[in-house]
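User: Hi! Is it possible to get a structure for several chains at once, not just one? Here's what I have:
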Amino acid sequence: MKRTSLWRNGFFGVAALLFAVVMAVSAGTAIAAKENVVKIGNIIPLSGPSASVGVQNQYACDLATEMINNAGGIKSLGGAKLVNIYVDSKSDPTVGVSSAEQLINNDKVNILSGCWNSAVTYPTTQVAEKYGIPFIVPVSVRNTITERGFKYIFRIAAKDAWWARDQFKFLDDMQKSRNVSLKTIAFVYENGDWGVGMAEQWKPLAAQYGYKIVLDEPYPSTSSDLTPVALKIKKANPDVLLLTSNASDAILLNNTMAEMKVKVKAIVGTGGGHADPMFRKNCGKNAEYMFDVVEWETDLGKAGIPEVNAEFKKRHGYDLAGESVDAFASVFVIADALERAASLDPKKIRDALAKTKLCSGPGMIVSYDCVEFDETGQNKNAGIVMVQYRMIGDSLERVSVWPESAARKGFKTVFPMP
Amino acid sequence: MTRDTLDRTLKILAVLTVFTLPLWVTNPSYLQILILLFWYAYLTTSWNLVGGWAGVLPLGHSAYIGIGAYTSTILAVNYGISPWFGMIAGGVIAAIVGVIIGVPTLKLRGAYFALSTMAFGEGLRVFVENTDRLGSCVLNGPRGICIPLSNSFWNFQFMDKAPYYYIILIMLAIALFITWHMSRIRIGYYLNAGGEEPEAAQALGVNVAKYKVIAMAISCFMTALAGTFYAQLALYFYPKAILGLDLSFEIAFIALIGGRGTLAGPVLGALILRPVSEFSRIYLSSVLPGLHLVIYGLILILVMIFQPRGIQEPLTRFYKWFLDKVTVSRG
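Assistant: Yes, the chains can be modeled jointly so their relative placement is included. Here is the combined structure:
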């Protein structure tokens, strides 16, 4: 008896509240004034663990947008100005997905961009693909993002697999240009997701380039003593040593190898721990001549870098980093495509993006020559820079050395390591 | 107009409103909010079968949402089976798991049942987060699963939000009907008796544990369907979003605040708490992430102090008063 009456009465409450919702909805859908703008929706982490890189990303986009708008906006669209709408992803994939829906349906953005974290970019790009809105991915590196046959997704940065690819390309180039023969190779990597993943990519490449793998050694990154690993390397005596390490283990392994006088023709790191400023501080001379891969360095010998970097530093007090440069360049890629599309039709913007070949202009401060997308939407020229650690005065510095077109002025690769 | 006619008219109006809503609310974002609102109402109604009628407090229901989402998605991605069938498969698996969990734990009283369901829910989340592959099935650990795009009814994917709206609305209507029907047949009376006075009910020859397990199985089955629905709506899910304590607590909070063990409670709870959650998420989450749960907690304390049967009670009273007032004043 009591229950049925609750059922009956409760339903009215439902209806009343729904009416309220409807009223609120209809009040909220006032039509916004039409302006000549192109809206770019940026979904990036502005709070949470990745906030600092997200904010750098935002600053870089703002700077690029300002440069484009000050130069007259998109001329083929009657001088339309670019407007960035930033949404905080909180590094949460679910928030990324719902933000993309929100930006497409409510804010009616013309283009989407983001999301820094691969984990967020991966599902969020699918929303853009579903609605057919072009999505520019400046930095997320997970391979699969551009490997799903999507038509509206374009990535500026190199994929994960290309780090490994460029490590081998560099070695190959060195063998040829320096007439050094490299026959044997050793893999030493931290045993987590990242290290194991890198090693999986190294193996087929080693076979392809004809190296003999003499050591394949995963180690726990938290070890307090890496003497056994260093001993194994010494015993295997490889020509090339490839490393994937986090910060503390990179320092420990490097100094242990130096103590044991392990001599290798080339030691190549994979960023991460080897790019950490602590590594430079704690290894000093022990790490001299070692190589490391990175997507970008401020010392690259390319036109425009000093000016843009100086402006950025003036505003925010720190240098541009590889990831912010990708974000910076992505805005110019968007502007270039819009200029050629001469339309806000998402399909036309998409087609123009697919035909991108951006080689010059203020946005091209990247380490390679041109931005061009392959049929999967991946920037096929996205490259990696090889840096070599060199002692300059008393301090160990990262000097860009390869590709040679982007090397720091006055420096040449020292190969093999002395 | 007599009191009964007014009552009936209002009810018909309410049903009409709910069913024609997508005709006026064309903005997909608002529709999405309504879909999630009904989704929570549906989940809480399913939870209510155990948490409300059977007199225990399950705090691990997100586990069954996860089972539903993962089962239908794996079947669709790996074997090309339509999520509509996957949905049923997920429901059956969830019901079996529910029975396995329920048989030993439903005999426990008070906090013990709540704790053991919580442990199971968390255990499942940790397991999934650390498992990339299960045999030939890809779980992707903490990275979650993306469902490939292919808009068709068969694939349970739609370009518009309206079909999702109607699906969840019908699911909610069925869930409410099941609850209403159960409250009128033997199992409902047994559960109610067993929930309030298990010793007395047992003394009268009611096999309380058996009916609790049956209720658990039905509840888990229905909860798993919601998991598939969510997966197909978002086309992406990962363990943190659909497994784990946050979601389990949210369901329990909605039921407790709305009115546990009543038909309208879960729906009213969702109607009132979901907007609170949405707004706190939009405006306050950068200051204090997870604040909506804190707000829920505060509301829960207030409701428990002043309206221990949930907010459905004062609302019902208000509605009755309104009916009386209108019909009296008219004559």
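The CA atoms of residues 167 and 293 of chain A lie 7 Å apart. Chain A has two domains: 37-158+303-372, 161-294+384-406.

User: Great, thank you!
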